[in-house]
From TrEMBL:
Organism of derivation: Dyadobacter luteus
Protein name: Thymidylate synthase
Residues annotated to bind dUMP: R21, R126, R127, R175, S176, A177, D178, N186, H216, I217, Y218
Known EC number: 2.1.1.45
Coiled coil: none
Binding residue positions for (6R)-5,10-methylene-5,6,7,8-tetrahydrofolate: H51, D178, A272
Domain Thymidylate synthase/dCMP hydroxymethylase: 2-273
Catalysed reaction equations from the record: dUMP + (6R)-5,10-methylene-5,6,7,8-tetrahydrofolate = 7,8-dihydrofolate + dTMP
Lineage, opening ranks: Bacteria, Pseudomonadati, Bacteroidota, Cytophagia, Cytophagales
Complex formation: Homodimer.
Amino acid sequence: MQQYHDLLRHILQHGVKKTDRTGTGTISVFGYQMRFDLKDGFPLVTTKKVHTKSIIHELLWFLKGETNIAYLKENGVSIWDEWADENGDLGPVYGKQWRSWEGIDGKSVDQLEEVLKLLKNTPDSRRIMVSAWNPTELSKMKLQPCHALFQFYVAPPDEAAGETKGKLSCQLYQRSADVFLGVPFNIASYALLTMMIAQECDLDLGDFVWTGGDTHIYSNHLEQVDLQLSREPRALPILQINPDVKSIFDFKYEDFELKNYNPWPGIKAPVAV
Ligand SMILES: Nc1nc(=O)c2c([nH]1)NC[C@@H]1CN(c3ccc(C(=O)N[C@@H](CCC(=O)O)C(=O)O)cc3)CN21
Ligand SMILES: O=c1ccn([C@H]2C[C@H](O)[C@@H](COP(=O)(O)O)O2)c(=O)[nH]1
């Protein structure tokens, strides 16, 4: 995860001090890109222990189309607690927009089903996109989407090199990025989603490309960042997914196994609400 350390250093060197909605204050740059070849291993930060269980459950919760934190609470995941109302509701956030974006004619669109259809039928399409940024529903969301838009791309097999399958890549546009707390989660989550989709569509793995808009370190994460940068990145772990699961909507927590993850100890930091 040298790429992630490069990003932290880039913000410290080139960032500007900026106020923000939460009143915390940040150092921020506008526009940044990182690329992870998913064949190199699972892109999980190794210079602090990252709570993979929260990442997997959050992704399964998005895929169910859910927007109430009940499922997360049942599974011991508390990362969305601060934003939910007294009934646990977050409004029409990611799950709703991914699985049932409401159209003007009252019909809803399952954007993920559309993605799967395109990948299976017309993998050369340049329109394989999912948007969580639904301007008509932003005001009802407890937190507006940060990972707002993502696109898939299939590179044809290199037949001369003996390849038989296309390679699936994914690019995310994250409009706002809390680099210390949120970004390690976001990278791992989209890498995992890409692996699940590749399995369903019988594709090999390509790259995950992370593109950030307002890419910031909160002013109360600076000591944590210094500690993290003093640590040497270690080999990437492997994330194995149950090869028998043929639909991305059928995965359960037990279908994932993280191997060879030997991170440095966790680093606590307050989340800006
Ligand atoms: N300021 C802010 N940063 C975020 O990353 C963020 C939000 N707000 N709001 C919505 C979601 C919730 N996400 C979060 C929230 C908290 C942690 C967090 O506290 N992580 C700790 C503990 C992990 C755990 O308990 O599972 C960490 O050490 O990574 C991470 C992502 C990502 N998002
Ligand atoms: O998946 C996520 C969700 C949220 N964040 C961060 C980015 C910002 O620090 C805040 C959101 O505040 P806005 O004022 O709405 O931009 O949450 C993240 O990094 N990843």
